[in-house]
Structure formats: C-alpha cells, structure tokens
C-alpha cells in the first residue's frame, strides 16, 4: 500500500512539474528572443508561487500559528487558482495560435499583392537586378535578359549592321554604339567604333587598340611600330553593361519581432489576461457573499398546516485563514434576511481550531429562526477537532444533531455525522437517528455528503439536505465532483426520496469560485394536500 501511495505521489508531482514547465515555456520562453531576465523571473515566479501553495496547505493541516496560516493562505491559494486558469488558457491558445498565424500570413500576402499592383511597394536594389547584354550572341549562343532601363539605353544608342563582319573576332550583328554602321565594310574588317569600345571595355591600352583597328586605305603603316596581335573580344567584354546609378532607396530591413514571436506574445498576453480576470472575478464573487436561491420542494406526507414552511440551508462556509469574522457576519445577515422558520447548517463550517477561529464564528450566535438552528458535522470538522466544535456551536445557540432526531410539529428533523467521523469512531448511524420513528410523518434529514443518499432511501427519508460538493467550485472541477457524487448541485429524486445539494456559502482553498456561484438556499416545503 505504501508503494502505491509513493507511486501515485510521484505521478502527481510529475504532472504538476510538467504542467508548470509548459506554462513557463509558453508565457516566458516563447515570448522572448533568448535567455535573459524575463525567463529567469518567470521561473522564479512559478516556482515561488507553488512553494507558497505547498506551504499554505501544510500550515493549515499541521496547526501552524494562525498568523502564519493567514500570511501564507492568501498568496498561496490565489496562486493555486491562477495556475489552474493559466494552464487552461495556454492550452486554449494552442487552438488560436495557428489560426492567428494564418490570418497574419494572408494579410501580409494581400498587402504585398496590393503594393505590387499599385507600384507602391519597395523596389529591388541595383545589385539584385539581372544584367543583360548590349547586343545578342549568335543564334546558337545564349540570350541574357535585359535589365530594366539598360536595354532601352542600349537599343537607342546602337545602330543595326546590315552585314556581319567575319574573321575579325567580333560577333556578327554588332555595330559601334556611337557610330553608324558602314554597309560597305569589307569582309574581315571590324567597325572602328566597335573595336574602340570593345578595347575600352576590356581595359586595353593604346597598342592593343591600334592593333584591333586596321589602317585607313591609302596610309602607310609606320615601319618601326610593332604589330600587335589582334585580341578577340570575349562575351564578358561585350556583355557587361556600363554601370548605371540607381537612386531608388533599398527596401527597409525589418526591425520588429518575427511573425512567430509576435503570435506567441499575443497569445501569451491574452492567456494571462484571461486567467487573471477569471480568478479576480471569481474571488470577488466569494468575498461579496452568497446569494439566496429559492427552491420549492413538495412532500407527500407534509400536512397542510406546514405548507410554505421555510428552511434556510447553508453549507461549506469554511471559516479559516482567508474567510473570517466579517464573512461570517455576511452569511448571518443574509440568512436572517430570508426570515426562515428553521436554519440548517449542513457541515464544513470551519477550517481550524476553536482557539483560532472561535472569534470568527461568534456571529453565528445572532442567527434567528422560529424553530431554531441545527448543525451537523462535515468532513472538515474532523480535521479541526469535531468534539470541540460541536460544543462551540452549542454554546453559540445551534442544536447539534449527532445521529439524532427532533420531532417538530409538522415533520421529523434528523441529522447524521459525516463519513469522515468513522476514523474516530463517530461515523454516521442511520439506525440510531431514524430506526424508531413514525414512518407516517414526513422526515427531513441533514447529512453533509450526497453519497449518504442510499442509506436515506433505505430508511424512508422524504428529503435529504446536503452540501460538500461546492458545485465543483473551480471549473472544470465540476467534472471531477460530478463523478464522485450522485448529485453535484440542486434537487434530484431517488425513488421516494428527494436530495437537495447546496453549492455552499464559502470556498475551500482559493477564495474563488468559477462556474459554481456560492449560495444560501431557502427551501420552501409544499404540501400536496394544500
């Protein structure tokens, strides 16, 4: 058994660590460009928050000094609630993340297309343009694409040659860019302008230029001038254009975050805002105090004289390090405002000892009802000294029902201890509370946990009033609570027995409720004979 407990504890620890690492990654690592103060601060925040959670739980269960419990409870329990909704929000962000990225990609693509069509987009720099030749190669040679602006200048400055020269090293079809083509040019003679331009492009000196240009007819060459070897014009020398000046400014270099980083920051910010807002509103709802919920319950055995009898049901107040005397006074004032005929406190009144919480529970002495106030234990009373609290509530004017029954004028009111009392030999005893009663009379049973409904059905109870579930308290905790209890909240029928479960007036752990608002229920009994 010990091995199973250790394995379960390790599994739970692994899940918590993994979940917190995932939250840290999405909120801090993915939203920063690299390691730095933000990432370290996020790690400290998450680790420190969970340290406070553990410390608050240990302090409450170990009976640490009450001032220490109060110091640790507020930040520790609030961080517990915030961690739950940070995790849920980040998981929900995984659905939003690809959609947002796709939207941004489409927007950028549409913007680029619009700029291209209107000519307002950034132009490519000169270095990125494709160079072209000023003239074409032979039919078998490659054709180089013409760069914008350069092809126009080349075409306007070049005159066509009717006949190609052969054997001079100049490709056919070329003419000097600044000289008209000579239609009578002999075979093997190159146009002087072409040779000069080619020599200039190739970086040739005067001797080479002279050798590339034949003497004019009728002139005698200088004897002592050495004859230079004709230099063939290479495609590079011909095709490289004269550099032009592009005054178009280069496209601006992006300086903002990448699209992925931007999306991560947006999703993380939205997740954090949603989590903080959810916890803040849920905490405000608890501290504001419970609202009154009115429910009519018909009972077949209820006499006509009891038609409209009102029972104020309050459960799970959880007075403790967070909810103190002021909250207790709010609950008392809310109950008294309903003017009930009877008040039923169905367990989990406190989270702490009489020594620490006696002053906080003192306002309960002001409860007022014509047929009195009644109390049964919940599981948390057994964590805090049930016997002492039974005596304390009796001193405050409430009537504890410890596996006992009271015969009221119109029906029987019974109460049983909570299941948690079994470990102390004070568990529920339905036979003692209900065994010898008159079954012709209607019976209302106070039992903290809804799972006790099966025993109530066996003993012919007409209505059981319970709490314990908190309605789940923190969504989606309602899914877990629903699996562990026959009824999560509200009124349901089990054979001839009806079960009503209150969501409770307070909160345990985080003083926060999400999807399960606190309530005090005013049950109005209805006679079918009326």
List the main descriptive attributes of the protein structure presented here:
41% helix; 530 residues; 12 strands; six-stranded mixed sheet; 14 helices; alpha/beta
How would you summarize what this structure contains?
With 530 residues, this protein is α/β, with parallel strands linked by helices. Helix content is 41%, strand content 11%. It contains 14 helices and 12 strands.
Structural class computed from helices and strand pairing: alpha/beta
Strand content: 5-15%
Global geometry? elongated
The overall average pLDDT, rounded, is: 81
Distance between the termini: 57 Å
Overall strand count: 12
Radius of gyration: 46 Å
**Uncertain stretches:** 123-229, 233-239
What is the topology, as strand order, of the major beta sheet?
1-12-2-3-4-5
Order of helices and strands: HHHHHHHHEEHEHEHEEEHEHEHEEE
Largest sheet: 6 strands, mixed
Number of helices: 14
Overview of this structure, please?
Residues 309-471 form the Calcineurin-like phosphoesterase domain. With 530 residues, the chain is α/β, with parallel strands linked by helices. The chain has helices at residues 2-29, 37-62, 66-118, 150-157, 192-202, 206-212, 235-239, 259-288, 325-337, 354-361, 386-395, 430-434, 453-458, 477-484; strands at 291-299, 310-314, 342-346, 373-376, 399-400, 404-407, 412-415, 443-446, 463-466, 490-494, 497-501, 519-527. The strands form two sheets. Strands 1-12-2-3-4-5 form a six-stranded mixed β-sheet, covered by helices on one side. Strands 6-7-8-9-11-10 form a six-stranded mixed β-sheet.
């Amino acid at each position: 058994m010990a091995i199973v407990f250790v394995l379960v504890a390790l599994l739970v620890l692994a899940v918590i660590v993994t979940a917190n690492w995932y939250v840290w990654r999405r909120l801090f690592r993915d939203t920063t460009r690299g390691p730095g103060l933000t990432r370290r601060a996020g790690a400290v925040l998450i680790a420190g928050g969970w340290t406070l959670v553990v410390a608050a739980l240990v302090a409450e269960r170990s009976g640490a000094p009450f001032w220490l419990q109060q110091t640790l409870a507020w930040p520790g329990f609030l961080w517990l609630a915030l961690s739950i909704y940070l995790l849920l929000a980040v998981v929900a962000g995984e659905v939003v993340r690809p959609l947002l990225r796709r939207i941004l990609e489409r927007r950028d693509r549409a913007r680029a297309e619009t700029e291209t069509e209107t000519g307002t987009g950034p132009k490519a720099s000169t270095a990125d343009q494709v160079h072209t030749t000023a003239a074409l190669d032979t039919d078998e040679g490659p054709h180089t694409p013409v760069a914008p602006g350069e092809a126009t200048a080349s075409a306007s400055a070049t005159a066509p040659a009717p006949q190609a020269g052969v054997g001079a090293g100049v490709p056919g079809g070329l003419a000097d860019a600044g000289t008209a083509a000579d239609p009578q040019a002999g075979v093997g003679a190159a146009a002087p302008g072409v040779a000069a331009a080619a020599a200039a492009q190739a970086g040739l000196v005067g001797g080479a230029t002279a050798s590339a240009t034949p003497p004019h007819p009728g002139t005698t060459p200088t004897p002592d001038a050495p004859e230079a070897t004709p230099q063939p014009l290479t495609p590079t020398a011909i095709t490289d254009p004269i550099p032009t000046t592009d005054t178009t400014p280069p496209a601006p270099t992006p300086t903002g975050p990448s699209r992925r980083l931007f999306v991560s920051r947006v999703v993380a910010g939205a997740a954090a805002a949603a989590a903080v807002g959810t916890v803040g509103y849920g905490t405000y709802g608890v501290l504001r105090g419970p609202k009154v919920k009115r429910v009519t319950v018909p009972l077949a055995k209820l006499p006509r004289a009891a038609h409209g009898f009102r029972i104020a049901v309050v459960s799970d107040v959880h007075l403790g390090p967070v909810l103190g005397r002021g909250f207790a006074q709010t609950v008392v004032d809310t109950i008294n405002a309903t003017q009930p005929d009877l008040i039923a406190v169905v367990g989990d009144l406190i989270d702490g000892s009489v020594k620490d919480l006696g002053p906080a529970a003192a306002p309960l002495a002001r409860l007022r009802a014509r047929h009195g106030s009644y109390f049964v234990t919940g599981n948390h009373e057994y964590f805090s000294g049930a016997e002492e609290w039974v005596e304390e509530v009796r001193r405050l004017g409430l009537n504890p029902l410890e596996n006992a029954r009271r015969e009221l004028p119109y029906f029987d009111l019974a109460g049983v201890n909570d299941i948690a009392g079994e470990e102390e030999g004070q568990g529920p005893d339905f036979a003692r509370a209900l065994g010898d009663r008159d079954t012709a009379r209607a019976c209302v049973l106070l039992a903290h946990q809804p799972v006790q409904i099966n025993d109530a059905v066996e003993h012919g109870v007409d209505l059981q009033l319970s709490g314990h579930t908190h309605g789940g308290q923190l969504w989606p905790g309602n899914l877990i609570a629903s699996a562990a209890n026959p009824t999560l909240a509200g009124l349901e029928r089990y054979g001839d027995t009806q079960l009503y479960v209150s969501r409770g007036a307070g909160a345990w752990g985080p003083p926060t409720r999400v999807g399960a608002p606190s309530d005090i229920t005013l049950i109005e009994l209805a006679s079918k004979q009326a």
